[in-house]
Amino acid sequence: MTAAPAPRGLIRELTRAQRRLLLGGVLLGMAGVVSTLVQPQIVSRLIAAAGQHRPVAGLITLLAVLFLADAALSSTQGYLIGRAGENIVRDARVLLAGKVLRADLAHLNAQRQGDVHTRLVGDTALMKIALTQSLAQIILNGLVVVGGTVMMALIDVWLLLLTVGCLGVASAASVWLARGLRKAALVNREDTGEFGADLQRVLAALPTVKAASAEGREESRLARLADQARRSGNRVTVLNALLSPVLNVGLQASLAAVMGVGMARVATGSLGVADFTAFTMYLFYLVSPLVLVFISIGVYQQGRAAVQRVDELAGLPQEDDPVFGDGSAPGDAPASGDGSAPGDAPAPGYGSGIPAPRPAPDGGHPAVEFRDVGFGYGDRPVLEGVSFTIPRRGLTALVGVSGAGKTTVFQLIERFYRPGHGAVVLDGKDIAHLSPAEIRGRVGYVQQDSAAMRGTLRENIVYAAPDAADADIAEAVELAGLADVVAALPDGLDTRLGDQGIGLSGGQRQRLCVARALLQKPAVILLDEATAHLDSDAEAALRDSLRRIARRCAVVAIAHRISTVVEADRIVVLDAGRVRAVGTHQQLLQNDGLYRRLATAQFADNALAGSAAGSAARPAAAPSAGSAAGPSAGPPAGEPSPAPSALPTAGAAR
Ligand SMILES: Nc1ncnc2c1ncn2[C@@H]1O[C@H](COP(=O)(O)OP(=O)(O)OP(=O)(O)O)[C@@H](O)[C@H]1O
């Protein structure tokens, strides 16, 4: 994963929030340790008292109380630590979900969705075990081991040295195994993420997989990845399986040695029976904590691999990270240009050498302005020296062959990506200085792939304006040409849609997205081939609506159909990432070869198909009053425009 380093102390922050539960758990656990360590001493005194025929009832009662206290303390400690663990998982998931939702798209797109999912769901759960249960086990059982060792030293140092000698070799081997375990666990987490990512890819394109009869191929591919995860999982299992036996061998050896040497010393009278019993009890008490310490170290190492992956995801660069650093406050108005009268010469010196915004003819600034914008995805340049303005009202069409950069222009207006050069200006403000919420509150965006989500039709429509009034919803539905669709559904707006809006046709989904954008009441509406799936009646109705809407705000359409383009107040022709021409349909027909070819090629196609017969050529719209930055075409020569049909976006038209 190519993410920036995680914010320092993320894990510390998550655990600090749970410090009361964690501290409470550890303190109770320590009380339990004391109660455990005292027990052999009481037993030793019990044996001594019984040997001397003294009363033992008090000692027996004390021993019973210690046993019960031990059990109560250890279960309460387990509960507190477990609760802290669940809280840490919740906090980590909420934090990561926020990071992913606000991540910079360029960086997020480089991640595999399934891997992001695995990190958010699976790795956070493993992280909980590492940060709470296994750490608590290491601390508490470690205390039992240390405390027990001290008590054993007080009873008989030579027997202790014998024990440590047998256990030392086994412990060193266990530490070595635990180290290997961490590396193996990291590989296994990566492999699991890989499998998740591929599964997600297949599920997202299931109809394509079925249509291509690729189920078998995909199954084999998934099986290969599952096998890869199994192999690395097996390495983890082997190391895990070796950990306890290695330690057990050491423990068994030390038990045998202690019993042999201890009994011999009891026989010679150099060690008392009571002390030998207490020593042996400590050794037995040490067995399980010692094994648990090493198992917990193993689990902790596996959890650390998950912590590393969670940390990386938390380090995803965020879209509101400051990257420009020019010292101006977010949302600063330009030093000049605001308040200048329409027609004033642009004032120089705005931002980093970028000319000041040009006031729009209707007062105020243009709705959108591109100033010498250059942009590429990674090292691949897509836009170069792009400059144009979009007036505050009217319909602007963006045309060009496929891959010219039209959608990229929209994505830069939304600031999904930042330009490498130049500025995108929204209502006189460089969007580099606006928050994502400010930008997207002013811009409605209907994407090419008509995004709809699982939920009701109403939830989908009000998604960008959750508090919209019913009357506004009804108006947006009407304007988007969705009213008949809603009326025909038994549950109307409360009809439930499946994933990606399953339950609606492609054209209906497009109208839903238009309604969603309209309801937002934006200053600028971006339509990316929003009528591509509509039949000609629905498209004509939506065009009428857009004409009405364009009286109130700026409508920018990446136009698929020439009928939309013909009606546009201005047309921006993009060619290989550059603005080639700006003008009306008539002006461009007259003066721009590429535009003429784009328009007439489709007209000819439709004429051949006989579909153009009934389509009367619409009179070209009057040239826009707004001034156009960038190349401009000359006035129309009064020649007839091609009949409304579809404008090709294929490179063949060039
Ligand atoms: N996320 C991305 N990562 C890398 N390259 C991309 C990405 N999106 C688009 N491109 C590339 O950028 C170029 C412009 O793409 P864009 O989608 O803006 O073109 P377009 O004019 O809208 O095309 P179309 O009419 O086919 O939708 C294309 O060459 C495309 O391959």
Automatic annotation (TrEMBL):
Keyword annotations: ATP-binding, Cell membrane, Membrane, Nucleotide-binding, Transmembrane, Transmembrane helix, Transport
Residue ranges occupied by any ABC transporter domain in the UniProt entry: 368-601
**For this UniProt entry, which residues form the secretion signal?**
none
Name of this protein: ABC transporter ATP-binding protein
The entry sums up its family as follows: Belongs to the ABC transporter superfamily. Lipid exporter (TC 3.A.1.106) family.
Which GO terms label this protein's molecular function in UniProt? ABC-type oligopeptide transporter activity; ATP binding; ATP hydrolysis activity
What residues does the ABC transmembrane type-1 domain cover? 23-302
Where do Pro residues bias regions lie?
Answer: 633-645
Any one GO cellular component localisation term in the record: plasma membrane
Species assigned in the record: Streptomyces jumonjinensis
An example of a Pfam family matching this protein is ABC_membrane
Q: What residue spans carry the Low complexity bias annotation?
A: 614-632
Indicate how the chain sits in the lipid bilayer: Multi-pass membrane protein
Carries keyword DNA-binding? no
**Bilayer-spanning residue ranges:** 21-43, 55-73, 129-151, 157-178, 238-262, 282-300
